[in-house]
Fold each of these.
Amino acid sequence: MTVDQIPVTGRTDPAARADRATPAGRRPRISMTARRHRAFYLFTAPWIIGFLLLTIVPMAYALWLSFTTYDGISPHWRYVGLGNYTELFSDPQTWNSLGRTGLFAVTSVPLSIVAGLGLAVLVNRPVKARGLFRTLLYLPAVVPPVGVGLTFKALFDQNSGAANGVITLFGFDALGWLADPYARYVLLMSVLWAAGNVMIISLAGLQDVPRELHEAARIDGASAWRTFRSITVPLLSPVLLFQTVTGVIASVQTIMPLLLSPDGTTAGVTALPQSNYLYMMHVFSQYFALGRYGYASALLWVLFVLILIVTGLIFKFTSGVVFYNVDPEAKK
Amino acid sequence: MTATSLPPNSAPRVRVRVNRLVLYTVLVALTGLFIGPFGWLILSGLKTPAELAASPVHWLPTDFQWQNFADAFHLIDFLGYARNSLIIALIYAVLVTLSSAWVGFGFARLEAPGKKTLFGILIGSMMLPQMITLLPTYLIFAKLGMVDTYWPWVFWGLAAAPYLVFLFRQFFAGLPRELEEAAIVDGCGYGMIFWRIFLPQSWPVLSASFVIAFTWSWGDYIAPQLLLSTDKSTLAVAVMTTYVTSAGTPVTNLQAAASVMYVVPILLIFLIAQRGFVAGMSTTGLK
């Protein structure tokens, strides 16, 4: 059905036709509200239906699978109750990968936010060719993950990489960047490369900070740093909170280690350097390499619950710090 | 008078100048740091395999191997994969832009019981990790016989994307109420109002949404990897997995050349649509 053919509310509906049958074809007042209600559901229906079928149903299906030994091929799968979950909690790989993922999130998210905010402050100053600087700094953020992976593999290759080229110039030995223990730093750098994402959103926030506030602070003799800390950061706090929450969720499901691996395919997930074997990699290896769909589903559900808890905690602990000066619902 | 006021005046002026110099140096250095890796990828794509294997590093290729780009084109069915990527990205971007605009109009302009809750779910679902639904979604599509077809992208497109819905909702909410009032008095349905009045007003958001959705799809790696067989798969998957010799060793110089050709279209689209794209990104941040 194209948008053209979507029935215009109130025309094809028998109730509305009945309304129009009233004297002089005028609709009674009450049907206006009814029409608006019906129209609302008609307009939001694609998303509601999509959300149910493409999000709720798959998640429920994964929940069911997580209680089974389903592997997609063998007909002999069975219900094992909480078996997968008890196994998961006693699997050292779960805990190790979870720990690495947590470490990755608590380093990469604050670093990206600080880097992005720093860049935003820089390109918010009245410099020449500001637009060009903004564009070039933002550019890496639009490079698709596969592009990032291949670019960083080229940069950090043991022989041909520019990174080793530079450090050998200074008389150091070439490092195996893409192996343990350095792989985690390459992963971190690949994430920081996209700090332009944070920059662009922080920049919009910076431009919303009322100029008078800065001027007032300057008249009161506040230093630039003090102004930044006491005025800019509090006013940006909703934006920074949004960045933190989406950043944590994105870092938890990053597939970059896979794309940085020497093999680079989902099948090669088991060949990853240990330091980049994150939780999602553990899911992939159970899913692709071992075909343990039930077990992988249990891992995913545990991750989902953990994300809910962590997001809830972030909101709870920032509720006193985050400052909303405009209610987004209020400005209609 | 001038003689006495000059010294205290010129000192800050010098300081301003030094500040400027530092600022520009930092900006140029950072820009170099951000653009450098991409330059290195291009250089790697212009070297011979021997140069790539040489240690210490060969900074510049002795002979620029331009034919690497042609070879990368012919070693695999580059055009075929690019066509697949393009088809999927177009299907998804067109559908998701229209459906998100449609849903965004509902949230911006119409009222009904439960709207607040639904909007809360919509915003909350932006925070839902997609990976978690993707693996079970694959199994469901497999059961429905839709693996190795482009149908999943049609459904994902029709279902609207919360992020883009939010974008359209913000835009539509800002348009004046008079726009639809006259049309309602004339007995025009909301579908018509959306199609005839609101959509034509929203070119900036439509183009931003299209670019964002196109970029998502072009850059997506896991979904096509999961759902499509090799010959139906996208350029993202092909660039990552198919540049190997028959013996299985990766052909890194051709892979680098291919990844340049894979990334450049997205960079060009971004540069062309920059304004709308950036505006779109930043509106969402300010929720």
Amino acid sequence: MWTGPGCHNGCGVIYYHKDNEVVGIEGDVNNPINQGRLCMRCINYLESTNHPDRLKWPLKRIGERGENKWERISWDEAYDIIVEKVRDIQKNYGPESIVAMEGTGRNIVWQVNYLCYSAFQSPNFTLGFLSGDSCYMPRAAVEGVTNGDFFLVDCSQQFEDRYENPEWRAPEYILIWGSNPLPANADGFFGHWIVDLMQRGSKLIVVDPKLTWLASKAEYWLRIRPGSDAALAMAFLNIVITEDLYDHDFVGKWTNGFDALAERVKEWTPERASSICWVDKDTLIHAARAFGNAECAAIHWGVAVDMSVPGVATAQSLNSLVAITGNMDVPGGNILVQYAYGQGLAYNYGFENVPEEVAVKRLGNEYPLRQMGFGANAHEDAVLEAIESGKPYPIKMLWLQTTNPIANMAGEAPRVYAAMKKVDFCVVVDLYMTPTAVAFADIVLPAAMSSERWGNRNWYTPLRTITKVAEYYEAKSDEDIILELGKRLQPEFFPWKDNKDWYDWIMLNEAFESGMTFDELQEKVYSFPKFEYKKYEKGLLRPDGEPGFNTYTGKLELKIELYEKWGLDPLPWYQEPRESPYSTPELFEEYPFVMTTGNRAYEFFHSEHRQLKLNREFHPDPIMDINTEAAAKLGITEGDWVWIENRKGRFKQRARLDEFMDPRVIRAEHGWWFPEKEAAEPSLFGVFDSNCNNLTSMCDNGPTGYGAPYKNQIAKVYKCTEENSQIMPSTQVTRLGGFPYVKK
Amino acid sequence: MSKNNERYALLINYEFCTGCHSCETACKVENNLTHGQWGIKVAQDGPRKLENGKFEFIHVPIPTSLCNLCEDRVNKGKLPSCVQHCQAAVMSFGPVEELAEKISKPQMVIFTPV
């Protein structure tokens, strides 16, 4: 079976259970993905499932919002309240006034959107105020128009016999860009596969502002200025093209627009990129040459690629780099992956059930990539603006399923807090009482954890199941909650008996290529579809069966023809962050650090796991990294609490001194709240006290609507003292109207 | 621990230990160890720069006196929990002499905690 108490991986685990309760967990040694290995979050799964703070039954708010006063109600009562509200909003404002949101990935990428589209009849499903969709979606949208498919490093994950498979070979080089895959567990990628490959001879090139363990083992470490990734990526292309290290055969036969790309990146010389990106010029040149000369090489990229205004341009450059070096869909390169057996359930699942005249009202529909189906969800920034202004229509209800935006996902968290308070009706579905639930919820519903639900997983192979072995008080699976509510609202779109019945239907309809029912898949546990390299040569990518890529021109688009038709720049480009050492030099004097955020830790997944004693023993406090000498100049020593501040707000974390950080760069953690602190406002579990998103921005996106500057704000740092800590940020935000220095 | 009078041990290829804490957590959960107690603990050296421009950044998991090499698990035919869950796959368990034969490269160490 498969689990994910909080991650994207899809590792195999074995549960031991007794009387409807899980009593043990360990990695499944027969699982080809993780081969018995597990990270500490899964190993400590029992503390999560049986934690006294877990929500046990539905709750209705009885005090004011933020007071944390609740009464226990039945599921029927909860559904009745919700149905009445939904009907009222649909009738008086239109279904588009309901917005449904969810957190990141896991096994929940199609359920909440199905609820939104099919039960609420609203086109406004989106992520919890993730500005510019800045996690995977910019990359995914670029891959959609460029290749027609996603790619991953070839770690032989597509073969059941893994590293023994005779067709596979280890990449000569792996270029790890803006990711620390070991703790990051991103997008169906088990990070320690990178270590497996290192043990099989792969060498590393790492682009990261921090000397991570992987960076320390790399042949080339490029210590990039956060936010300048697009410039560095174009410099890689420049070197590979000008030094003639590209694959002429692949470029000639299978790509479109190479000359235009070459012309565009001409100006991105190593000298220019070196000065903009703060990367050593020789290291850059040697790294690009190593990648270009390798017999096979692959790129592993992370959210840093998405989290800048030119995020899509960065992704476009890196996608082009894989292509022109002949590393697309070859052994030891980047493999084109598809959902297992065509089970393509994603954020667009159920969109066809939204009435046509309502569908066009989707917030952010003016962005062509979204309109043309390369991105399904509503635009988070446009949702925020609609709540704030009531335009183009008011937002009356928020459905938040397993998302905790003010702790984690929302850029500019204090602004989002103020907006969410204005919404009439709010339902939160989660495992624990979160700061988001305390602050906004009218109804809180308890969700089941993975051992308490049926499910399957197709990111990317194999297709695998989740098996229900336990129950917890009145908690229900995400699917059961959605199904039961859907039946009451729009029964024609919810014909299934229960959670498991729905999966049976999915297996027979959406994953029909497998030829298996859900029960048959359960028996098999893991099922690998057949995989072939160089699918573009064999006519395996296009619906018409012709060779080539599933794109507008049938070629891999180095110059994106569709962009040109839509009035977008069809080639990669660079833009300085809105506030940076170069775009606002005077401001940089006052805020002399570039701040990157969101570095991952083994102990936590985003805002999860903070209530677990064992995980907190390893990692009790939020940590920020600062160069040793820069800290000394500010009188900061190891472990000091420091304030990090800019024009948006401030937050505090503990300083960790690092002699290898650029002295102009700092790095902070995200997702922090403190379940051990007071829940009621003004504390709100201290959610704003250490929140790096007090400093980030909403509504600063690229021309495609994608990309936001989460990882490249400027800030200043100073030591926390009793005097400057009189008013904590949580009080400032919840009681004093926000930070006084925010200028709208 | 002994089976057929053989001494059992852990072999660690610490060139590739990433410091992910899986062994430490697995041990704490398996043996129900309290806050502050460890059956295996990861020691760290670095990161520091060497004269050749490369970096030294090493983790070595060290079994403590609380390690019993997961006797109960091993008697059931399983690996010690730290070995099974090691994400970097750098830990092996077996008789000392068999493990000694596997020492084929630098940065390997054998521990005999029991």
